[in-house]
């Protein structure tokens, strides 16, 4: 669930005052991740690489309190849960949006991912979780892009990650991601901490 909170009673009071009416309140960071271990887990388990990335994103974000806040309109909302969005190619050769609720159990997350993305692909209907703080993702896995900056619509303030094709070099595989966030939600230090936690999660993911 979500509910409105008073920004003045939070650690984001100054940021809310400074950035809510800024013409461009979004900030984008780039980071090159070592995904060698994630590739190995994907091959060993048969789990999709994109699903594992979405899980690691949710896992890293779930331990950072700023991810449970989000500016909506002129309000600051607090959420009880996090979801990770993925873009799905549907049966009409278009794309649809799919929100997947985050849970600590990677196997359960995988089951939800497979079920919901299949449902969205077949029905061509978005699966939205408006009561969760949704982290957007877009994987352009067939393209070797060096980075991307998300569009700020003025409507959706959600954090967003974009990545392309991973790169192999000898015994190491890397993936460059962009991370866009609203400055009211978090500062640069929080964003950098999240990206560090994402790398740690990738390094230590354990499939039981």
Question: What can you tell me about this protein's structure?
Answer:
It is built from 5 helices and 10 strands. With about 210 residues, the protein is α+β, with helices and mostly antiparallel strands. The mean pLDDT is about 95. Helix 3 (about 50-60) crosses helix 5 (about 190-205). Strand 5 and strand 6 form a beta hairpin. Helix content is about 30%, strand content about 30%. The strands form 2 sheets. Strands 2, 5, 6, 7, 8, 9 and 10 form a 7-stranded mixed sheet that branches. The protein has a 3-stranded antiparallel sheet with strand order 1-4-3, with no helix packed on it. The longest helix is centred in the middle third of the chain and has 18 residues, at about 105-125.
Task: Identify the notable features of this structure and list them briefly.
globular, single chain, 7-stranded mixed β-sheet, alpha+beta, 208 residues
Determine the strand fraction and express it as a percent band: 25-35%
Largest beta-sheet characterization: 7 strands, mixed
Spell the H/E element sequence: EHEHHEEEEHEEEEH
Strand pairing plus helix content: what structural class? alpha+beta
E-strand count: 10
Question: How helical, in percent, are the residues?
Answer: 25-40%
Return Rg in Å: 17 Å
- The total count of helices amounts to 5
What does the average pLDDT come to?
95
Our measurement of the CA-to-CA distance between the termini, rounded to an integer number of angstroms, reads 30 Å
Q: Which of globular, elongated, flat, extended, rod-shaped describes the shape?
A: globular
Q: Which consecutive residue ranges, at least 5 long each, have pLDDT under 50?
A: none
